Known about the structure:
By secondary structure, the chain is α/β, with parallel strands linked by helices. It is 44% helix and 20% strand.
Amino acid sequence: MSSQALLSCATRYLRTATATAVLVYSTLVAPLLAADNSVAVAVASNFTPALRDLASVFEQQTGTLVQISSASTGKLYAQITNGAPFDVFLAADSKRPQLLEKSRLATANSRFTYAVGSLVLWSRDPDFKDADCKAKLTELGNKRLAIANPETAPYGAAAQQTLIKINAWEAVEARLVTGENIAQTLHFVASGNASLGFIAKTQALDERLPAATCSWQVPSELHQPIAQQAILLNRGNNPAAKAFLEFLQSPSGQAIIKRHGYTLPH
């Protein structure tokens, strides 16, 4: 074989070997390295703004990327049971994390309450300026009341429990507009598509919201506690996910949670 033929053969081999090495790295090695330096968090919609702040501090401290997926607790639970690749689940209730633990889709004894939520009845309707928001529930006329879906969103379940407890459910049931999650519920009432809405306290504290014309912080005794629990999923049995959950319970993590309007667990 001539020297030119040998050179051509060697060049082809080098190109093939290089391409193979790149393929192996991109398909096998790179994802593993990325997985070691990131944590995939499924979070209930109400806690998303707080999680963004938590993630920013955690990333600065550790260099670990926090990948955020937000939806209603019920929808995220369904995704997890169908194999969605999350490491950590931050629910807005305790029921779904308990179910995941019982079904062995999560690490035993990793579940804890990271925040306790509060419910607020809120309006920006000019007709309700300085009005008694609670009294307006039974004086809606042709106006609409927004709540999150009680079947999938814990804040929606708390709103329904409150309405039943104050004997207003029958009066408002025909005037309800239901959000898929608490974020969509806020959109309905902030945009004026609903005149009143039961939203999370953390949302009511958002400075970007229009000024409220009336609001009512719902007493906690009118609904079951909104104990928001975290749990380490089976896929998250790695140092990055465990470190994030430890950060969530640290003094700096709890300070961020409290700043967003949540009560810390006792």
